[in-house]
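Record 1 of the preview.
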Amino acid sequence: MRRPYIGITGFTRPEEVLRVLEVFPKVDRRLMVGVLVSYKSLRRLPTNPRWARQMPSPEMIKDLFIEDERVVNLVHYCAEEGQESSMLGDMLKIHDLAGPNFHGFQLNLVWPEIWLLEEYRKVVGEGPRIVLQISKKAIEQAGEKTENVVEKLSLSRELIDDVLLDQSRGRGQPLATEEARRFLLAIKEKGWDLGLGVAGGLGPDSLYLVEPLVADFPELNIDAQSQLRDSENDLDLERAKTYLIKALKMFNLY
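->
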């Protein structure tokens, strides 16, 4: 059964996962353990230092995905611009690397080709969870119109499990709450079997951005990344734990 989650993206060491789980109880929500993998990191090509610090080596991925009923372990995959056709091969390679506790992907791509998603499902089946990120660029490609975004989403809705609205590009740009509400409502009104989520500048000091959405979307997924990094761009475990506690309280789970 698909459970809603509270996410942290950017784990690079197994002990980080264990430390944040110290404050995460057994509840209906899961801790989403987000591990960043890109076209470049998978091939050991030079990567922007900002992102390289948040990406483990390919061999390390499986060690970050522990067996624990409280977690959902997702690889956040980003293809290189111009190399989007590599998505299928990369996803299958990640399956081999990620180990037995791997649960699925968040696809940080702009409207991936439907045939690639279809081929992926043919090979691996319906088991892996797929979260499709809808980024600022994806919305721009849809003419920044809600109905166009929903129409494009309709093409992949039977191949994915969740949608995550995230216009921050991993840089901490704050969530535009009412704009997110407009998109979420438009998707919800379709009655599709899709989990809904948001990200964008979320952290221990900014959950007020998402709190107004909880009443209308009680099973909303949320994710945090940049606001949980320290000055060295490492995961700040104390900020991460504080974020989790506050988020659990926001969802009346703590």
